[in-house]
Amino acid sequence: MHLFQLVRVSRQLQKEVQSQQQFNKQWLLPLLKSLEIKHNGKFSSATLKKIYNYYGIYVPAVICNSYCKLNGKEMTDQEQQCATMFGILSPLYDDFFDEGTLSKDEIEAITLDPYSYHADTFEEKVFKEIHLWLLQNVPYPERYIETFQQVFLSQFESLRQMDQQLSEEELLKITYDKGYYAFLLYQDILDIKHTEAYKKVLYTFSGLLQLGNDVFDVHKDLHSGIYTLPNLSQNFPAFKKYYFEEAERFREQLMNLDFPTERKKDFLIIINYVVASGWIAILKLEKIYQKILSPEDLMKLERKQLICDMEKPINVVKRFYYCYQFSRGNVSIKSL
Length: 336
Known about the structure:
Elements: H1 3-38, H2 45-70, H3 77-98, H4 104-112, H5 122-137, H6 141-158, H7 168-187, H8 196-216, H9 218-223, H10 229-232, H11 236-255, H12 261-289, H13 303-306, H14 313-328
Helix pairs in contact: 1-2, 2-3, 2-12, 3-5, 4-6, 6-7, 7-8, 8-11, 8-12, 11-12, 12-14
Organism: Paraflavisolibacter caeni
InterPro entries: Isoprenoid_synthase_dom_sf (IPR008949)
Protein name: Class 1 isoprenoid biosynthesis enzyme
């Protein structure tokens, strides 16, 4: 792995993010306004923030676009629209579970049979409309709905994370399943048939990214009564070691796939930008764990003590460095 390749991919990713931001201004923003008018409601500020700053960028520009390039194709206009639609769909679906606005049976019904579902609230009406639009526009509707069923099941299973008595093995499976099916659903909107070999790689890196996300969300999860591996760990060095080993395993699995080497390296760099972010958050949390007696002591800390701001210039530099290290491989955990 040469440094110039990392620079090239980084610049290209930045351009694609900026392009998606421009697309959102021209296409997504008018759509959101039209949905509010049509269904006589308003998106909450929290939902809009998730759409603009996360899902509406991350799903199309990073998850879907990088997978297209790995497969040697450009994302079509329709695929970009479908991926951007998930910028709206994902936070609404999460809220059905997190805020308890719908029962399990209602969420299952709107997921698997949106045609027959009677939507009452603004959020339900918007979700139903987008879900139906996607069913009519994705290349493989049956595959899409089958994966969405698994997303529903994994999301419902994740509610068990409010039980502090869950074993680490149970937490790990819940975490990886949740990450895997979410990623698989995003990529199901593309006109690409997944190989079984790729699915194994996807399971590894989507679970890895979900672990990293849990590190960033330690404060929020603790105060919501949600238990995750990073906030429940009795042996944080072991958690750190596991994350590192999974990053290494992802690289090895990916490089064994039947794609041109340069495409695989480009894809590796893009995913490792997110892996590197998780690593930076882990290093910060590790220092905190060294000063406290138990995971319960995390509850006493303020949000600003636990938050890891990836916009800080020092963290931007660190992310670039760790992305390079994870991507080139053959590094020891001590060197990081």
